[in-house]
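Quick start: what a row looks like.
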Amino acid sequence: MLGLWLGLFSLGASPALAQGAPVGVAELCAAPEDLADVRVQGVSRGIYSLRRVGTAEAGTVETGAADTGSVWVQQGALQRGEERYGLETLSCDDVAFTRLNPALTPRYDPEAQTLSFEPQLGLLPTSVLPVSMPAAVEATSLPVYGLDYGLDLHLATQRDGTRGVDQNGSLNATYANGRFSAQVGVSESNTQTQALAVEPSFSARYQLRPQSSVEAGWNIAPLLTDGSERFSGVQTQLVGPNLRFLDVFTVDLPVPAKVRLIAGPLLLGEWTLGAGRVQFTGVPLPGPSGTVRAVIEDAAGRREVGVNYSFPAAVLPSGGYRAVAEAGLLGDAAYANGRVSYGLTNALTLNTQFGVKAGRSSAALSLTAASETQAFTVGVLHNLSDFTDAATLNYRGRVGGIGLGVGAVIPFQDVRQARVEAAAGTKLGGLATGLAVGYDLRQEGWYGRAQVTGELTPQVRLSVGGQISGRSRQLSLTLGYQPSAQWNAQIATTLSPAGPGVTAAATYSPTDSQQFRVMYGAGLLSGEYRLRTFADVAVNAATNGQVGASIQGALVYANGRLYASPARTDDVTVVLETGVAGLPVFVGGMYKGRTDAGGALVFSVTASDQIDIRVDLKALPIEVSVKEASLLVAGATSRSIKVDWRGNFGRSRFVDFQFGGQETAYGTVSLGDLGEYDLDAFGTTILPASAQPLAGVLTLKDGRSCPVTIGVKDDVVNCP
């Protein structure tokens, strides 16, 4: 009877222990101690001490079976964020042991000496991390003196058979320092049919923020009107931050990890985090669409999680604004004009415009409502687009797989002068199709057009289109061929009442800085060559005897030296220093040129909140190493900046090692803190360039060794 009671007591004891019955220090320390390879999510964390309490024969369990007693593991086996994996901690012989939570269902294999369990997100903490725009590199402001030049020459034959040269040129002297910049320029033109015309200009500008400025000028281009008339007066542009945010982006980390958070093209930050659930809040979203990605590197490897975002480009975020205004003289007439857009909500934007020229006023008011797939604008205008007073309507959206668009301008005085167009487009079996119909008296009433485009092969593209109106009819067929990124060609045929026509063009770009182009049309064959190095140069010729040449560029004095650069067409001048000659540089995906012999490049960019500079890693010489392929520079209020990126690039050199005049195939060279370098089959390796001699040890494959000293310019080193 006593044995029966003892047996019943024993059967009831194990479950109680498994559920967390108290264990004293004496009982824990009396349990046998094992060494086990602790594995979490199948990945080893190393060898740790293990004690198991609560089984009839502590320390033994069937291989692979779930442990029925309490499992105590050395405390160091648990990592940051896994505090709730342990229930209590006791010490034996100054070694701290933590009792594992039974919810982990730990499994011990005594033959393999492994203790394994899977992560339990329910036991891991949740943390909140606010996110902000990345701390971009702050550029250094510096004074810049520049001289931009351009010249275009064209030799042509007139109808009367005479030959002559048409030419136009420009010269602009600029100065920029900090937020202030000024320019004085002159342009001239002289043709066979027009006498020499000279047009001077002047402007001074102050940058309020990266995209906001005030400028006063004489004979400069207007901001809000088209045409050839020049403007003299004051201009201002104001642009708000206009950022949208993702409220919460959640990432689950079963084990501690390193996390890189990326939104669109921007790296928002890097963190080393413990196990658990991380909620990134207030994630800034650059641009109207993109992806927020978390790149996670943990003991199990590398993975990514992400979410796409998309906002209508037709509207500003709530509280966002964009304003442009100018006042002065347009030609010889008094003139003022202004345009303001303001985000009432994330889906609703108010647009206004008001102007006056020579006493005649013009105005427009519209409201745009938009979602991710729909955008609708309704408004009124006065003395704009050839109308006295009119209502405007515009719709763009998608219904299923069909894109739709409707646009209309309806005058209040005469509805017959209305301009209306409706369009639809979709994809059918890999073909992009489009159809539009409209009414416009400028095209003699009703008109229509249709187009079908598709790829016959990955290299061949075909497009067929047609249009019809009261004025004309035309059918066209275009065949495009692009066998590689360097080659591109197309041929087009058209049929119209005037007869058939054929045009063709082929382009070859062997490098980012060179382009050859051949064109044919109307019985005329022409060719052109363009080169973009430290100036933009182009030459062209045609079978009718026409010959042309042009050059555009800039000479810039900054940072104590003179630079030659392609034409500066944008607002901010950038002096980039890399220390690597001939390096292709891209900004926002656009090619800007190659660095000069000193590893520097001068280029211009539009004023923006951030400047994304990238280099082509494939173009780097083998002896040049790079830390990062891109650099994010904070948008500058300065009109001229210097970006020192030399620390991103390292230069190496080839060194050949010999031992008693013989090759040292597959040996090694140890340079202490600089590391160990393997030699190839010829005893050669690549070592970092150094301004001081390097001391090290050469070790041959057979174990022989000797000390070596590598001079600054040595390319062959012998063991004595």
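That is the whole record. Residues 258 and 515 are 44 Å apart (CA to CA). Residues 1-20, 56-68 have pLDDT under 50 and may be disordered.
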